[in-house]
Amino acid sequence: MTTTPSLIDRPEAMFQLVRARQQRGARVGVIPTMGALHEGHLSLVEASNRACDVTIVTIFVNPAQFGPQEDFQKYPRTLESDLEALAKFKVDAVFTPRNEDMYPPGYSTYVDPPRVAQPWEGEHRPGHFRGVATVVLKLFQLCPADVAFFGAKDYQQTLVVRRMVEDLTVPSRIEIIPTLREADGLAMSSRNRYLTPPQRKQALTLSRSLELAAQMVAGGERASHRILAAMHAEFAAAGITDIDYVAIADPDTLAAIDEIRSPVVALIAARVGETRLIDNRLLTP
Ligand code: AMP
């Protein structure tokens, strides 16, 4: 059975719907997205369907989190097929706020993101997490859900959101859902649709090098520099030269780790052609 979810674009209407349901005792879940939905997003919807009575999906391509040279203009906007995909789940409303309601003329207040926003993505996408933290806080105001679902695919983002929610006493609970991958291991991403068939093959290097890292750690390797060298060799072999970072870091602070004595996170950001892809994996000694 499929039911097209109702679209809400008015901020007040969104807020009232959430409060009305909560007053009747419902537990409300929200999944913030930028649309161009894939099965990874839908796994967050499923998680909300399992844990909550009411599920809201927000779709907003947030200009504040894109740099001036980034893909805001060409970011895929596929509302019709997004609604079709969501119709297969129990989605009570899809919130598509308008740019002018989120950032009206004179808008000038931004969230200064927590320290964990500084390394890695923070260095390569200045202002990105400021935009993310700001829009997520605004979405929590408009859609004060009991639970909000985020994907582990954007590992640093999950740390930024968790810390912000704690620091700014946002009452919503944050749940992190594992990364959904294609059969061959490529992490699902809205940006995968930019890849040509040869680039799609090259893109597999991200997950393959993470698998290699996991195997090295499982085999007893404890020196990050040897693991990072092996990962870089995979990228070189695949002809991927535009690497923002390949890192092994503390899973909570994201400080670089030299010797692996407890679980760490391996983080990658690289460009395949023009397309910037990220991936990560926990490595447990
Ligand atoms: P986006 O639309 O890219 O901003 O993503 C919206 C949410 O979906 C974020 O919390 C992402 O981390 C999550 N997400 C994106 N890709 C995946 C994936 N492959 N598996 C699980 N969650 C994902």
Lay out the secondary structure.
Layout: E1 6-8, H1 11-23, E2 28-33, H2 39-51, E3 54-59, H3 79-86, E4 93-95, H4 99-102, H5 121-124, H6 128-142, E5 147-151, H7 155-167, E6 173-177, H8 197-218, H9 224-238, E7 242-249, E8 264-272, E9 275-283
Parallel strand pairs: 1-4, 2-3, 2-5, 3-4, 5-6
Antiparallel strand pairs: 7-8, 8-9
Annotation field: number of helices: 9
The termini sit apart by: 45 Å
Biggest beta-sheet profile: 6 strands, parallel
Question: In what range is the share of β-strand residues?
Answer: 15-25%
- Model regions low in confidence, pLDDT < 50 over at least 5 residues: none
What count of domains describes the coordinates?
A: 2
Estimated radius of gyration: 19 Å
Describe the structure.
This protein is an alpha/beta fold. It has two domains: 6-177, Rossmann fold (3-Layer(aba) Sandwich); 190-283, Pantoate-beta-alanine ligase, C-terminal domain (Pantoate--beta-alanine Ligase, Chain: A,domain 2). It contains nine helices and nine strands. The strands form two sheets. Strands 1-4-3-2-5-6 form a six-stranded parallel beta sheet, sandwiched between helices. Strand 3, helix 3 and strand 4 form a beta-alpha-beta unit. Helix 6 crosses helix 7 (155-167) and helix 8 runs antiparallel to helix 9 (224-238). The chain starts with 5 loop residues before the first strand and ends with a strand. The relative contact order is 0.13. The chain binds adenosine monophosphate. Adenosine monophosphate (AMP) binds next to helix 2 and strand 5. The site of adenosine monophosphate has 17 residues, from helix 2 and strand 5.
